[in-house]
Write a structure and sequence with these properties.
Two copies of one chain form a homodimer.
Chain A (H helix, E strand, L loop, with lengths): L1 E7 L4 E8 L4 E5 L6 H10 L3 E6 L11 H8 L2 E5 L9 E3 L4 E4 L2 E7 L8 E5 L3 E5 L17 H12 L7 E4 L9 E2 H7 L8 H9 L9 H8 L6 H4 L1
Parallel strand pairs in A: 3-4, 4-5, 5-6, 10-11
Antiparallel strand pairs in A: 1-2, 2-3, 7-8, 8-9, 9-10, 11-12
Helix pairs in contact in A: 3-5
């Protein structure tokens, strides 16, 4: 399997490229609209066709590249079960697998940042945690039907129960960190280590973060698979 | 072996952490002064002591964290042979190995960006290319005794002769790319693919780049292993 981590510095978003090198087919997870050209160039150079674009959730801080990539490559757009995106080709359910040759991507329902967030476990060895779990952090829970208690349950019961050696690849990082492990996060993530559910809820409720700059544009666009409203109407 | 790629967004620099998990000892390659606190925290959390700080070259775009890390941890500072840094504990020669438990780091003289630049091949499987080779790019050659012809020779005769599957980890990236391979760079790096030595020299001679913002501060500081002049005098 080929695995590549790609970064969008404007939104601090990680996009992941998985590919089966025999099939020469790829999956992009959480592509970013502004990076579509970069990602297509890389696919072309690696001799890969794009089978799927997969979203961990409906993003509020960037517009997904899925719509444009689907238009240009004919790939399938996959979103999590219950995500409000009728435009998607497929909704993936909790514990359902997306298979591509030697690659098995298992969906793990991890709501809390949004009400329909999924993490994806790749070949049992690395988990793309989206905005549920960051390296020494986690996604916010104060909009898009977010819920701190539910996020606490998702992280502690669905992610922290994976083997300690499982590699953690988040959808964002703001401090130059690229990878961690479940064992490390259980021990050192300051949002969860040594906090019970109540304490976590209280902490998250007092973050008082400003809305993401692109939120008013990004959420409705992402509910249309990343097509900007002006383009559609 | 533990391997971590860390990023400094201000200077777009990658720092690499290598560690032998039995010895619980680590090497940092190209640490950045402003990230010393982050790096020390990570070492502490991973239960690692810092054995060595290793530089690919005397940097012009950021101040190395080596001086501060050496002061705080007692690690050894290693620079490449001929690098003007008398403060270093050791100068590493071309083809010399730095060994730490299960880790073997082989120095590969790759001058051209500077006259004393080294790449480092880690356990024969991944090469930290410093500023000699970037993902689809390369370091500039217009200061610090840089020489485009010599860089062309370094890259084509010392790096592109490594096995195609060797992973390429550069010291900088400006487009959100984290890793490549020698095979990919031979085929797709626009600075080298399809260019002969003369054509490369001509191309590099016409880049007309502005000096790095921190150059006047960084070069003299890095010749003192990263201690700012004001601190020393």
């Amino acid at each position: 399997m080929l695995f590549r981590q790609l970064y969008d510095s404007e939104s601090s978003t990680y996009t992941y490229l998985l590919a089966d090198l025999e099939l020469k087919e790829a999956i992009l997870i959480d592509p970013v609209l502004e990076q579509v050209e970069r990602d297509l160039k890389l696919l072309k150079e690696l001799g890969l066709s794009l089978g799927y674009c997969l979203e961990t959730h409906i993003h509020a801080d960037h517009i997904t590249g899925t719509g444009k990539l689907r238009e240009l490559t004919g790939c399938m757009g996959i979103v999590s079960a219950n995500a409000k995106a009728d435009c998607a080709n497929r909704h993936i359910q909790d514990e359902e697998d997306l298979e591509l040759g030697s690659i098995v991507v298992e969906a793990i329902a991890t709501p809390g940042h949004t009400d329909s967030h999924m993490a994806y476990l790749v070949n049992g060895e690395r988990v793309l945690t989206g905005d549920a779990l960051f390296i020494r952090g986690c996604g916010r829970t104060d909009f898009q039907s977010g819920d701190a208690g539910i996020l606490y349950d998702s992280v502690t019961s669905r992610l922290f129960t994976l083997p300690d050696a499982t590699l953690v690849y988040p959808a964002h990082d703001y401090r130059g960190q690229t990878v961690s492990t479940i064992g490390e996060e259980k021990q050192w993530n300051p949002r969860f280590a040594g906090r019970d559910r109540e304490n976590f809820i209280q902490f998250m409720d007092n973050l008082n973060l400003p809305d993401p700059k692109k939120m008013m544009e990004a959420v409705p666009a992402n509910e249309k698979c990343g097509r900007k409203l002006a383009t559609i109407e």
